[in-house]
């Protein structure tokens, strides 16, 4: 088991805590980004939310209240359809992976208040489009051990790192103080 320690910076203080560590195991065969993955139920681990220090108004794509660690007042499930239901306040968006990622990110960009968590596929059209309009992008230090919704346990290391894409001052502030990784602001397109 390989551990990637996450230094969490808050108010100028670096905090390292093994219980709040992003663990990346070297277990083989975990490729939940792959279209062959057998489930879309991969959940964000609590360490990410502890570092962000935010309570969201809405989780726009969720397995349901109490089924994941997302601190939010309301959770849209596939039955509500978070893509067509109204978004309000500061939202959390860890979209189902696949072709629809671009649509979820476009909706977040239009909404203008919230955070998306996606794989850092910087070469893709959807990432380029999103990066151009975000207020901040954070490339995570280490890989996030997403929780397998079938077992409620960390599933090991995904095939790539992640990016937090923030819109609006609340999201921007939370991401920049989180210590989750290196942050960038996209330069205006000319
Ligand atoms: C990658 S998981 C993220 C779960 C949780 N938001 C988190 O960050 O831990 C994506 C979730 O979106 C749900 N989902 C899929 N399609 C959806 C839709 N159209 N509207 C709302 N939720 C949806 C899935 O059931 C799954 O629980």
Question: Would you tell me which CATH topology applies?
Answer: Rossmann fold
Helix fraction by DSSP (H/I, runs of at least 4): 10-25%
How would a crystallographer describe the biggest sheet?
A: 7 strands, mixed
Small-molecule binders: S-adenosylmethionine
Numbering strands along the chain, what is their spatial order in the largest sheet?
A: 7-6-8-9-13-10-14
Q: Could you list the spans in which at least 5 consecutive residues all have pLDDT below 50? A: 1-31
Briefly say what this structure is.
This protein has 190 residues and is of the alpha+beta class. Helices cover 20% and strands 26% of the residues.
Describe this structure in words.
- The protein is of the alpha+beta class and 190 residues long.
- Helix content is 20%, strand content 26%.
- It has 4 helices and 14 strands.
- The protein has helices spanning 46-52, 101-111, 125-133, 168-178; strands spanning 2-4, 8-10, 13-15, 22-24, 42-43, 56-59, 72-75, 91-93, 114-119, 136-140, 147-148, 153-154, 162-167, 181-184.
- The strands form 4 sheets. It has a 7-stranded mixed beta sheet, with helices on both faces.
- α1 packs across α4 and α2 runs parallel beside α3 (125-133).
- The protein is globular, with a radius of gyration of 16 Å.
- The termini are far apart.
- The chain binds S-adenosylmethionine (SAM).
């Amino acid at each position: 088991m390989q551990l990637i320690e996450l230094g969490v910076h808050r108010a100028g203080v670096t905090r390292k805590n093994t219980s709040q560590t992003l663990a990346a195991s070297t277990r083989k065969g975990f490729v939940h980004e792959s279209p062959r993955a057998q489930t879309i139920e991969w959940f964000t681990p609590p360490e990410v939310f502890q570092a962000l220090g935010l309570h969201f108004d809405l989780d726009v794509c969720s397995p349901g209240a109490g089924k994941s660690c997302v601190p939010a007042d309301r959770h849209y499930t596939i039955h509500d359809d978070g893509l067509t239901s109204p978004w309000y306040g500061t939202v959390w968006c860890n979209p189902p992976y696949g072709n629809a990622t671009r649509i979820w990110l476009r909706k977040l960009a239009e909404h203008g208040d919230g955070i998306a968590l996606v794989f850092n596929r910087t070469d893709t059209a959807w990432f380029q489009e999103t990066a151009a309009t975000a207020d901040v992008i954070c490339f995570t230090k280490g890989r996030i051990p997403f929780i397998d919704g079938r077992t409620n346990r960390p599933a090991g290391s995904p095939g790539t790192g992640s990016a937090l894409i923030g819109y609006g001052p609340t999201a921007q502030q939370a991401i920049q103080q989180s210590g989750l990784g290196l942050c960038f602001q996209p330069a205006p397109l000319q």
